Inverse folding.
């Protein structure tokens, strides 16, 4: 497939123009014009680029790319090495950040819900035009520790659990990645537990004092679903060979 077509297909599906994001979405680094082999990963770190080179990938699709707001503009150090490897090997970098969180069928939030057995009932922030997190329900009521155990089994990572009281868990709000501050939206929604990837010192106090459980399930661990779903979808519907490469990250 032509790189141009791949970018158009992903842009059509993910509609980046509808988001106010912290990085450019779409084609961030242009490589060769034909794409047959696509690597997906969470972050365009050097280790992922190395593995993509070894596999002979034509393009890489990630959730976390380059050129973040507030990062320095100069191409030095880590940024130089990453870009140099991509350009030397003529590999494209495709990046979708918030659009990949929000996508209704293959996004990070819906794929996480599927893994955890949550039925989505609505958006976490109904004021947003394209809401990122969601609220929903478990099929049956669980104790907080049973739910945490379930998350550990499914994601392969022990979550950090902050108890907000002795209530069990049925209603859930979640937002993948570094969305711990959205706990305020979860409190407003009145759910039993809020799940995100990371945690701040203040999240602990908010959970305890507002009476909501908080589960920090891993930024990396909660954001592996979107790129994998898109890679599989591209492989199924277009002439593209896809491979997801997981570069472990404990956060
Ligand atoms: Zn993220």
């Amino acid at each position: 497939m032509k790189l141009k077509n791949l970018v158009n297909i992903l842009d059509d599906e993910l509609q980046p123009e509808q988001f106010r994001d912290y990085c450019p979405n779409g084609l961030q680094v242009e490589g060769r014009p034909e794409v047959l082999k696509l690597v997906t990963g969470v972050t365009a770190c050097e280790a992922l680029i190395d593995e993509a080179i070894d596999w002979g990938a034509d393009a890489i699709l990630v959730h976390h790319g380059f050129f973040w707001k507030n990062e320095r503009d100069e191409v030095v150090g880590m940024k130089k090495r990453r870009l140099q490897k991509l350009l030397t090997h003529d590999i494209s970098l495709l990046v979708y950040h918030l659009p990949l969180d929000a996508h209704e069928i293959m996004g990070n939030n819906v794929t996480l819900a599927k893994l955890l057995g949550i039925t989505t009932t609505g958006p976490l922030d109904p004021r947003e035009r394209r809401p990122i997190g969601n609220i929903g329900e478990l099929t049956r009521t669980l104790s907080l520790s049973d739910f945490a155990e379930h998350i550990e089994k499914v994601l392969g990572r022990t979550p950090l659990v902050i108890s907000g009281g002795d209530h069990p868990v049925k209603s859930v709000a979640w937002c993948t990645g570094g969305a711990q501050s959205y706990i305020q939206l979860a409190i407003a929604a009145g759910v039993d537990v809020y799940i995100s990837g990371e945690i701040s010192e203040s999240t602990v106090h908010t959970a305890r004092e507002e009476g909501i459980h908080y589960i920090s399930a891993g930024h990396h661990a909660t954001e592996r679903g979107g790129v994998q779903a898109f890679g599989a979808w591209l492989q199924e519907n277009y002439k593209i060979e896809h491979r997801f490469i997981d570069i472990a990250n404990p956060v």
About this structure: The chain has a mean pLDDT of 97. The chain has two domains: 3-97, 103-222. Residues 63-64, 177-178, 219, 223 surround zinc ion (CB under 6 Å).
